[in-house]
Structures are given as structure tokens and as C-alpha cells.
């Protein structure tokens, strides 16, 4: 150390110090930037890997109907180019796709893929040509919605098919509007955004994201409302049971009338 | 008692079956041959008595029936008696329960009302049911079961009665001077005329005539289409996703339920080339449909032309608008032509355009009256 103390008053010492500082900063910058680019490339690689996994799953499971290029086939399955990740996510998480058969309406069933696989297929579909993305958790949070306003929008635009509390209902040609009692907020949002099957589309400019949250808040809130139960015909009430009870009592009255007027005649003939 | 002729005004020819004359009701006749008169509620004086003996004057008489005084089996009868009494006592208890329930439960809250309804209905129903069951058991096990035949007689009065009535009527007409004094008679008739016509005047209170209210709605040129529920106007650029549908109403009337009942509209967005109606094939003849749509957006009445239900079930794949009430189906691409169901006319279409700010507006009223048929419309 004595040589530093000896030379620190040297005229070249300040230059050497500045030079050393520049070298250290330069090296540090090089290390930091290289580590930054190093962390970005695994992300891109993971994204590409996800799309590739999605592509593989698509070819294995979906391409038989939708075509190897997702171009669709007339009369069998629609093109998936540009439908967006939201549409794919809705169909896959509700278990409607992959469909078991060509039918008027695909029913909700447990999903075939796990969430990671679904995300992979979503990414693959999105890579084909954009379309609406999967909504974020904040976008579909029912707690952020006003279910009073949601009820107005639901009654004007949704209740015609889905019933006033989302119990579902029949359409033409064997189609039906499904019950919304099991739908997750994300699925409700995706359905409005993409209009699966016969359902009309409600894009974000017609029904804004906030209004979609309001509708989600209504659909989820109404599930917790008191339900008289029974075969309630979509929350109308236990009318079916009332009819059965009415017919049963009618039968009882007929039997009572028979008993009153029956001849017994054993004791007094 | 003779009953061959009327003896005077007080006995003006009553038929004998009403005066109880002749040999009828022989059982009740004092000094009759069958039995002494019986007071209701007392046991019969003898072991058996005769019911409905020979009436004597119409047809062969049914043979007298023997009516047993007591049931055959006293032990069974005793059991039945206890059963009937038990029913009546339980009915009494249920009746007291009704009174107690009324006094104690109260109707302060909705839950209390519910409990009160159950308790009152249950106790009253039980009391009446037990009364009925007790009475039926009484009839079936204690009272004798013997078939009785009650003879009926012609409804027509006998000639002598008809003659007597005629005489009385004519005498009344004569003595009242109704025939002799036409002034009285005619003024009486005149007095009743306005009263007879009065109900026709009351018909006016059934309400004003509908006028043209069935033919028109509040839609007129220049009114914006506002999204029902949020009240926002909408541009074709926003309503841009093919397959979209939204319920709209006229600007300024969204909160007017009377107006909205007729003015509710759905707008639907199609892909280019899907709309297939033209003036030539439009389902309502004689209508020009030039420039009725904007950018493949079509507006139809939401009120079904069958019975007025909201027809808003839209299938974006088949472009069918379905009414949930009776399954009337309209093809939205063909001017809402009826393709199925009981509706006989297409949904009325609202001509639309855009205003200077780019929002969708109506460019005129509906092309035909909305909703179900009415007689002037045919």
C-alpha cells in the first residue's frame, strides 16, 4: 500500500483514477446489460416453447376438425385464425372443446386439459392472428362491479336467452342458452367478448369493460340470493311441486268423497 | 181435510202434496194407523217404524221399509261412538288452537306472518277435517243404512190452480186501472226509457279511444339510438363486431316505460354481404328500404308481432330472432321475415342513419305498426 500513498500526489494519479473508474463503470454496464438481455431471451424462449407446445396439442387434438392450419372446415368447424385467445380459453376451460361429437350445442363438461396446457393453446391461437386476449383477473373481478347496473344490462341483453337469473333456456334447432350458475367470472367475460356458438358478440365498445364487470357482479351475486328450491323452473319458485301437491290433494278429496258415500252395509243389512 | 176444491182466498187451490193433505205423511198424522207423532231428537217409540207409506194417489206404492232402531252390534256401535266423540273433541282442541295461535303469534314480521299463516291454516283445516271425519263416521257406523224412495210429482200446476191464478191476475189488472188509464201506463213506460239507455252512456267511461297510438311510436327522424341500461349513444365504429346485438331505445324516452313498451329496438351487426333483403324481396310489400341500414347494422322492433313478447333471442350463426313465448322465428338477414311460428308479419324495421357526430340515429318511424295485430290493421 505504501506505493499508493507514495504515488498519490503524482501528477498522473488523477488521470489514472478517472481511467479506473471508467473501466469499472464500463465493465459493470456491460455485465448488467448482458444480464438483462440474458433474462429476456429465456422469456422469449419460454413464450416460443409455450406456443410450440400449444401447436403440438392443437395438432393432436383440434386439427382433425379445425384443420392443421386452423383454417376450419365448412360445415364442421370454424376457422380459428383471429378468434383470439379469449375464445380459445372460453371453449377449453368450459370443456366445450374438444367436442365429443358434432352437435347443435356443446355442453359444459370438465376441461380435458390442465391450465398450463390451456394457456399454451391460447398462446398458439393468439399467435395465429391476434384477436381478443384472455382478460386479467382485475378485469373480471365481480367485487369491482355494480350489480344494480349489471342487472339492467343483463335484463336488456342477456335475460332473453339466459333467463333473468342466468338459469339458461331453450333456443331453436336443439340449441340452448346454457345456465350461468357454474360460469367463472373470466368465462362470462370471454363469452361476452367473443360470442361463442349462437351467442351474439358484446365487444368492449358496446358493453365497456366496467359494464362487463357490472354484469359479472350481477350474475355471481344473484347466485347467493334466497332460492325457494325444488324444481324451481329457473327461480320462478316451487311451482312444479305445487302442481303435484294440488293433484295429490285432489286425489285425496276424491277418495274422501268415495269413502263418505261408500256403502258399508255389513252391520245393518 | 178435504182438498178437492179451493175453499177461499186463503186456501187458493194448493196442491195436496203441499198442504200435507190426503193420506200422505201418514207417519206424521196424529191418530194415524202407523205410529204416533215423533219429536225430533227423541228415540223412536218402538223398535221399528214405517217410513214413507203408500201415498195413495199416484201409482203403485212401494212396500213399507223396516227401519232398525239400533245397530245390530252394540260393541261395535260403542267403539264407533267413542271414535266419533274423539274426532269432535280433537276438532274442538284444534279450534281452540286456532284461537290461541291468532292471539299469540302475531304478524309483526314477515317470519311471524309466515308462522301465523301456517298455524291458522293448519288448525282451522284440522278442525274442519276432523268435524267432517267425525260426521262421516257417525253416519256410517251409527245411523242405519236403508234405501229410501221419495216419490216426485209433476212440476206443472194443476188446471184448477192455473185457472185460479188467471182469475187473480185479471182481477188485479182490472182493479189497478192499468188497462183503463193509458196515461199512467204510458208515462210509466216513458219513465223507464232513459234508464234503459243509461248503460250505453256509461260505456264512455271505459276510456278514450286509442286513436293512432297503436300505429305510432315515439321514434322519429333524428332521435339517437341509446344503449338500454347505460343510456350511451353508439357509433357504427363501436358497434363493429359482426354478430353483435344490443338493445337500444330512443333518446329521451329510456325511462318512459309507456313509450319503451312500444319503442324497444334491437340492433344487429352483420358481415358485409349477409343482409339479403332488397326493395324487391322485402317481406312487407310496397316499402322502399333504400338506405335503411348503416354499415351492415340493422334495427328491428323488439316487440313480437304475434302477441307482443320481447323477441330478442338472437342466434348469430343462423341469424334467427326467436320469440321465447311461442317460438315465432324471424330471419334477421331477410327483413325479419317469419320463418317459423304463429307470427304472421315480420318484425317492423326502423330505418337508421348517422348524425353529424357519427352516432346512430333513426331516420324515420317504424315501417309498420309494432306489436300484435289489431282490427284496423288486419
Q: Could you explain how this protein is built, in words?
A:
The complex is a heterodimer of chains A (269) and B (378). With 269 residues, chain A is mostly helical. Helices cover 55% and strands 1% of the residues of chain A. Chain A has 2 domains: 39-133, Cytochrome c-like domain (Cytochrome Bc1 Complex, Chain D, domain 2); 135-236, Cytochrome c-like domain (Cytochrome Bc1 Complex, Chain D, domain 2, Orthogonal Bundle), CATH 1.10.760.10. In chain A, strands 1-2 form a two-stranded antiparallel ribbon. Chain A starts with a helix and ends in an 8-residue tail after the last helix. The model of chain A is unreliable at 36-40 (pLDDT under 50). Among the domains of chain B are: 74-141; 217-378, Rieske [2Fe-2S] iron-sulphur domain (Rieske Iron-sulfur Protein, 3-layer Sandwich), CATH 2.102.10.10. Chain B is built from 6 helices and 12 strands. In chain B, the strands form 4 sheets. Chain B has a 4-stranded antiparallel sheet with strand order 3-4-5-6. In chain B, strands 7-8-9-10 form a 4-stranded antiparallel sheet, with no helix packed on it. A two-stranded antiparallel ribbon of chain B has the order 1-2. In chain B, a hairpin with a 4-residue loop joins strand 7 and strand 8 (320-322). Chain B is extended. The A-B interface holds A 149, 152-153, 155-157, 160-161, 169, 171-173, 175, 177, 195, 197-203, 205-207, 211, 256, 259-260, 262-265, 267-269 and B 68, 71-73, 76, 132, 136, 139-141, 144-146, 227-230, 234, 237-247, 268-269, 310, 312-318, 320, 322, 324, 327, 329, 340.
Amino acid at each position: 500500500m505504501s506505493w499508493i500513498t507514495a504515488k498519490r500526489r503524482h501528477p498522473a494519479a488523477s488521470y489514472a483514477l478517472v481511467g479506473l473508474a471508467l473501466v469499472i463503470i464500463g465493465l459493470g454496464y456491460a455485465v448488467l446489460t448482458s444480464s438483462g438481455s440474458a433474462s429476456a431471451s429465456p422469456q422469449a424462449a419460454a413464450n416460443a416453447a409455450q406456443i410450440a407446445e400449444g401447436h403440438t396439442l392443437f395438432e393432436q387434438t383440434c386439427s382433425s376438425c379445425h384443420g392443421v392450419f386452423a383454417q376450419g372446415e365448412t360445415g364442421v368447424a370454424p376457422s380459428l385464425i383471429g378468434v383470439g385467445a379469449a375464445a380459445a380459453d372460453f371453449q377449453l376451460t368450459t370443456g366445450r372443446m374438444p367436442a365429443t361429437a358434432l352437435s347443435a350445442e356443446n355442453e359444459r363438461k370438465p376441461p380435458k386439459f390442465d391450465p398450463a396446457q390451456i394457456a399454451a393453446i391460447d398462446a398458439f391461437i393468439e399467435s395465429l392472428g391476434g384477436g381478443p386476449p384472455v382478460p386479467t383477473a382485475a378485469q373480471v373481478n365481480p367485487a369491482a362491479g355494480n350489480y344494480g347496473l349489471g342487472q339492467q344490462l343483463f335484463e336488456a341483453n342477456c335475460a332473453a336467452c339466459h333467463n333473468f337469473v342466468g338459469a339458461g333456456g331453450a333456443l331453436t334447432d336443439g340449441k340452448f342458452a346454457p345456465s350461468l350458475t357454474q360460469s367463472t367470472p373470466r368465462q362470462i367475460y370471454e363469452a361476452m367478448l367473443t360470442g361463442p356458438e349462437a351467442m351474439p358478440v358484446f365487444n368492449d365498445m358496446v358493453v365497456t369493460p366496467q359494464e362487463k364487470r357490472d354484469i359479472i357482479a350481477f350474475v355471481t351475486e344473484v347466485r347467493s340470493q334466497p332460492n325457494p328450491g325444488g324444481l324451481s323452473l329457473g327461480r320462478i319458485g316451487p311451482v312444479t311441486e305445487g302442481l303435484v301437491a294440488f293433484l295429490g290433494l285432489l286425489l285425496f278429496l276424491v277418495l274422501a268423497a268415495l269413502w263418505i258415500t261408500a256403502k258399508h252395509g255389513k252391520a245393518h243389512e | 181435510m178435504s182438498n178437492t176444491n179451493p175453499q177461499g182466498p186463503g186456501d187458493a187451490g194448493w196442491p195436496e202434496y203441499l198442504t200435507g193433505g190426503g193420506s200422505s205423511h201418514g207417519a206424521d198424522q196424529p191418530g194415524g194407523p202407523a205410529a204416533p207423532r215423533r219429536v225430533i231428537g227423541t228415540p223412536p217409540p218402538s223398535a221399528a217404524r214405517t217410513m214413507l207409506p203408500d201415498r195413495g194417489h199416484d201409482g203403485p206404492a212401494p212396500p213399507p221399509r223396516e227401519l232398525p232402531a239400533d245397530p245390530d252390534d252394540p260393541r261395535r256401535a260403542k267403539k264407533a261412538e267413542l271414535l266419533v266423540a274423539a274426532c269432535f273433541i280433537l276438532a274442538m282442541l284444534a279450534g281452540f288452537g286456532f284461537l290461541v295461535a291468532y292471539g299469540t303469534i302475531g304478524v309483526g314480521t314477515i317470519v311471524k306472518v309466515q308462522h301465523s299463516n301456517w298455524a291458522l291454516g293448519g288448525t282451522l283445516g284440522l278442525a274442519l277435517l276432523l268435524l267432517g271425519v267425525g260426521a262421516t263416521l257417525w253416519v256410517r257406523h251409527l245411523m242405519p243404512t236403508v234405501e229410501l224412495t221419495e216419490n216426485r210429482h209433476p212440476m206443472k200446476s194443476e188446471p184448477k190452480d192455473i185457472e185460479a191464478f188467471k182469475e187473480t191476475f185479471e182481477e188485479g189488472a182490472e182493479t189497478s186501472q192499468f188497462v183503463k188509464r193509458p196515461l199512467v201506463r204510458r208515462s210509466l213506460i216513458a219513465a223507464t226509457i232513459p234508464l234503459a239507455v243509461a248503460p250505453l252512456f256509461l260505456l264512455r267511461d271505459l276510456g278514450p279511444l286509442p286513436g293512432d297510438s297503436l300505429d305510432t311510436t315515439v321514434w322519429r327522424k333524428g332521435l339517437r339510438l341509446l344503449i338500454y341500461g347505460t343510456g350511451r349513444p353508439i357509433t357504427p365504429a363501436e358497434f363493429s363486431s359482426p354478430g353483435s346485438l344490443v338493445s337500444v331505445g330512443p333518446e329521451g324516452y329510456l325511462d318512459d316505460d309507456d313509450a319503451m313498451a312500444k319503442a324497444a329496438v334491437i340492433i344487429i351487426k352483420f358481415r358485409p354481404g349477409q343482409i339479403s333483403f332488397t326493395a324487391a324481396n322485402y317481406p312487407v310489400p310496397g316499402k322502399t328500404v333504400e338506405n335503411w341500414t348503416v354499415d351492415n347494422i340493422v334495427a328491428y322492433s323488439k316487440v313480437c308481432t304475434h302477441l307482443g313478447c320481447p323477441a330478442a333471442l338472437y342466434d348469430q350463426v343462423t341469424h334467427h330472432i326467436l320469440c321465447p313465448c311461442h317460438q315465432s322465428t324471424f330471419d334477421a338477414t331477410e327483413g325479419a321475415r317469419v320463418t317459423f311460428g304463429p307470427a304472421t308479419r315480420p318484425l317492423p324495421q326502423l330505418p337508421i342513419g348517422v348524425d353529424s357526430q357519427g352516432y346512430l340515429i333513426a331516420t324515420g318511424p317504424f315501417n309498420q305498426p309494432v306489436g300484435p295485430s289489431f282490427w284496423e290493421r288486419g
